[in-house]
What does this fold into?
Amino acid sequence: MTPKRKIKIVQKTGRDNLFECKDNPRTCDFKEKPGNEICMKTVELNLNILDESVLFQIDVIPKMIKLSEIVPLAQELSSKISNIIQEKLFSKGITIPCRKGCSACCSYLVPLSVPEAFYLREKVLAMPEDTRKTALNSFLASARIILKEKPEGLNLLEIDQLSKWYSNLELPCPFLSDNICSIYDIRPIACREYLVTGSEIFCNPAWQADNHKVDLPASVLECLGLLSAEFEQTDIEAIMMPLALPWAEENLDRDMKTWPAPEIVEHLIDIIKKEASKKSYSTIMS
Ligand code: SF4
It folds into this structure.
């Protein structure tokens, strides 16, 4: 299918740790961008989103980065995919209540990939002191409840079981303040990908058997989890939001290693392509 729309994403990152391209300039993949002194490599992802072929062109800077530095790009990609889905369903008369200011799903389970847990820790540490203290206290209170209430034998890898148990705790997200997400622009990918049709009451995991949860061509969250497991050679891990900060603190040594950014982005895009190809995702849902 020929792409109808092209979407540009530029890796937003500092310009430290740039590496020099040693390839023959004639065969080098990195192209000099007009008005930009840094060479970039464009990585392409063609996705079929509800019967429309969409081409994402991602400009990547040749620098060494940690896996957590890929998070802003993954967040942007997941938001753009979700926005297209919302727009297309809306044009078919299907309502999606998810919007800025809605907090209907903010007391349900928010799983984070490993890079997101490290990214979130950095963002919390960079907050002004008052905000940081409030967030840390809120995390602490939630983590205490989770550890106190967690029943023996709960399988943390069994996501449906975990999700139902968690929603019964009615524990608001530590970042929910006056029913508004206080980190909306940097919210986790799970929050961007969790779309339901109809009304916000269908956010409750109990309704998911009724197909109100919107299917995605591929989950960027799951792909980021796979990427991190492959690069770190670990099992796939998902971290519950309220436990993310202590988890990241305990595992800081894992957030030290760097890889060339193009290698990470290309691999993430390959995983997304592979995951999307496994799905028969094309028709507008009812
Ligand atoms: S991060 Fe924001 S959007 Fe996500 S669950 Fe928390 S308050 Fe809600």
Notes: The helical segments are 71-91, 114-125, 129-149, 159-169, 189-193, 220-232, 244-250, 261-277. Residues 30 and 41 are 4 Å apart (CA to CA).
